[in-house]
Amino acid sequence: MSSTKDMSTVQNATPFNGVAPSTTVRVTIVQSSTVYNDTPATIDKAEKYIVEAASKGAELVLFPEGFIGGYPRGFRFGLAVGVHNEEGRDEFRKYHASAIHVPGPEVARLADVARKNHVYLVMGAIEKEGYTLYCTVLFFSPQGQFLGKHRKLMPTSLERCIWGQGDGSTIPVYDTPIGKLGAAICWENRMPLYRTALYAKGIELYCAPTADGSKEWQSSMLHIAIEGGCFVLSACQFCQRKHFPDHPDYLFTDWYDDKEHDSIVSQGGSVIISPLGQVLAGPNFESEGLVTADIDLGDIARAKLYFDSVGHYSRPDVLHLTVNEYPRKSVTFVTKVEKAEDDSNK
């Protein structure tokens, strides 16, 4: 099905004769590898893919988890229980240097790229606040506006040694002309209460940037699409050993037995799935590239006729979720305000 740049705006018009129009949106996943230890080159690479996707009619472009800054697959940072070393500390210094401030110059550049190509952009990035890193998703509008971010709530396994935890203040769902847009990062997608929070916010374009390229991951994505009655876009990097810095201490789970530069380290598997459980594009386990589908937003209503997990198929009298959206700061400063002396007492 063809797509034009103003298609979503035109077809989101008021229903004619009481019949809602069927809105079609072209969405694209970029399945590619970070340029490690070189953030400017990574953004250059991202821009080339965004230009390509936009030239083919994409209105939404999604990148994998930690694309900017890099997902540190196989990195050990010299860590073991009760053990630290100088080499690991220096490895973290380089990783920290590749992370970005939010907001910051890299965010401004990405916003400009989204504007020039008139796309919604959802970008996985490693964010730094001081010397703490966060696995973050950044959202941009076609007008070049930085909409906001989501920080991963719970890093997985050894990720917890290098990334901080997000809080409830960054779990947005943005109401856009092409649908309600939000994200869950990697194994956050296994957290049923977090998924429920996104469903309650009305998510329709469920972005799932990940580092999990396993075949089992596909089952999770299919389940979420059906459970949430939403379109699921899962983006994973396709990486080969040659994409990573040389380091004898890296521990990869290769998909091939050989240790050559072309050995696959992260096999991708990016996929787009409809609310009806239909795989619309992907999964791609073969190479870097674009995964694109034309999605019919009418499928959301079609799916929710039978199941709406936070609507007609919920039982709030029995099961209820409370979400704390307050920012959680480790230090709060309360400044004493001196009361002005009353002139009448002089």
From TrEMBL:
Source superkingdom:
Eukaryota
Which InterPro entries does this entry report, sorted A to Z? Answer: C-N_Hydrolase (IPR003010), C-N_Hydrolase_sf (IPR036526), Nitrilase/CN_hydratase_CS (IPR000132), Nitrilases_CHs (IPR044149)
Provide the active-site residues from the annotation: 65
Documented EC number(s): 3.5.5.1
CDD domains xrefs: nitrilases_CHs
Q: Where is the CN hydrolase domain?
A: 25-297
> Which Gene Ontology MF annotations are present?
3-cyanoalanine hydratase activity; cyanoalanine nitrilase activity; indole-3-acetonitrile nitrilase activity; nitrile hydratase activity
Name the enzyme's class: hydrolase
Q: Which Gene3D superfamilies match?
A: Carbon-nitrogen hydrolase
Entry's SUPFAM superfamilies?
Carbon-nitrogen hydrolase
Provide this UniProt record's keywords sorted from A to Z: Hydrolase
Q: What is this protein called?
A: nitrilase
